[in-house]
Amino acid sequence: MDTTGRLAPGSRLEIPIRAPHFDFSDVPHHWLAGNAVATHVFNGMNLVFPDGERFFIQAVREHLPQLEDEALVRQVRGFFGQEGRHAYEHERYFEALEAQGYDLEGFLRRFRGFMKTSERWLPASVRLSMTAGAEHYTATFGSLALEYAPLEKAHPSLRRLIAWHATEEIEHKAVAFDVLQATHPSYALRLLGFGLATVSLFGWTIAGTRMLLRQDRAAGRTTRAEVRRMRRALRRAGDLDVRRLLTRVADYLRRDFHPNDLDDLELAHAKLRELGLEAV
Ligand SMILES: [Fe+2]
Ligand SMILES: [Fe+2]
């Protein structure tokens, strides 16, 4: 770290693997401040995490033999461990959603088909670049989520799950990017992967959110008018800093960008300490 508190590009932080436990047995349908729309945006993202994370692990793994920097290889192993744990815990949360009565099968079948097809047809370099781009989003969402006020009113298990995942995304945010720089340092490839990651991540998260809201309406848990009102309430509250999200997206387009340009690790570790998750 330099005197500004900024992590130097290429600094090789240790990436710890934690194994916290989450009890999802009493999570209510609308666990995020009683707002169905906000809840299902997080749920929709949750549905794409496990298969997305396995795709990331595979893309990075295929480049492991080309890496010469041993400290980066150690970070890659930490990245595998963290993403593997995330996939496991988020998949456990699928079971909680199913126990609440949501039918996820059709959505998951289509999404998994898409991921398998991408894995089969896209070259490893493009998949690695997509991973680096998607990791920029997960680290960005992570730091925004840690400061998202309504999460303070979320069900405690989901609050802990999100804080843990957000922190680890911030801890390993430079790993896929550094592997991409070490093996395919092309700016055009970086932009291509970012574009593909943007379309896939937002497209599937929005599809998952809409599918869950549709099921809520069909089961009488909410109405179309209530969904409209909740959407307006979210926009008015202004808790989610859209301008910061867009600034971060634009950052990635800079030719000299590096994920460690922004150091939000202290924010993340403070949240982990607050929730008693720093050493689990
Ligand atoms: Fe993750
Ligand atoms: Fe990640």
Quick overview:
The protein has 280 residues and is an all-alpha fold.
Structural topology:
Layout: H1 36-61, H2 70-99, H3 105-121, H4 124-146, H5 156-171, H6 175-183, H7 187-218, H8 224-237, H9 242-252, H10 265-274
Helix pairs in contact: 1-2, 1-3, 1-4, 1-7, 2-6, 4-5, 4-6, 4-7, 4-9, 5-10
What keyword list fits this structure?
binds fe (ii) ion, mainly alpha
The quaternary structure here is single chain
Estimated helix fraction: 55-70%
Question: What integer is the average pLDDT?
Answer: 92
Number of helices: 10
Q: Give the helices and strands as they follow along the chain.
A: HHHHHHHHHH
Percent in strands: under 5%
Distance between the termini: 26 Å
Coarse morphology? globular
Task: List how many beta strands DSSP finds.
Answer: 0
Largest sheet: none
Radius of gyration, taken over Cα atoms and rounded to an integer in Å: 19 Å
Q: Look at the helices and sheets and give the structural class.
A: mainly alpha
- Return the domain count: 1
Small-molecule binders: fe (ii) ion
Poorly predicted regions are 1-6
